[in-house]
Specification:
single chain; mainly alpha; Four Helix Bundle (Hemerythrin (Met), subunit A); 80% helix
Length: 133
Amino acid sequence: MTIIEWRSEFAVGIEIVDHDHRELVGRIKGRQLELAVCEDPDRIIEILDKIYTDIAEHFALEERIMEQMNYPALAEHQEDHQTLLEDLREIMVEVEDFGALDEIQLTDDLDRWFSDHFRVHDAKLHRAESDQG
């Protein structure tokens, strides 16, 4: 099984966000290790729900920071957050419907999403914060 790992390209240069990103990736990695040995669809859903909650909590932190900054691209950033959460919900529905999880696809989706989101949206947030600083 492939597991998401922290990579330096995930860093955006905002200390609190980078710290939370590292923590988030670490929590997801731990949950993926749980998934690797789990065959019970109900337990898989519980673990995926924890991943969903971890990510949603991180998004809430980012969005509070953006609101405090009066970040002009807040709506676009929130929309991208919602896209990932919807993708995770779809994965959970697939597990409910078919009783199994495609762990490789989950890791690929998370890795791709984090790489793209951090590089594009969170990098814009860093530039906006730097401009305000």
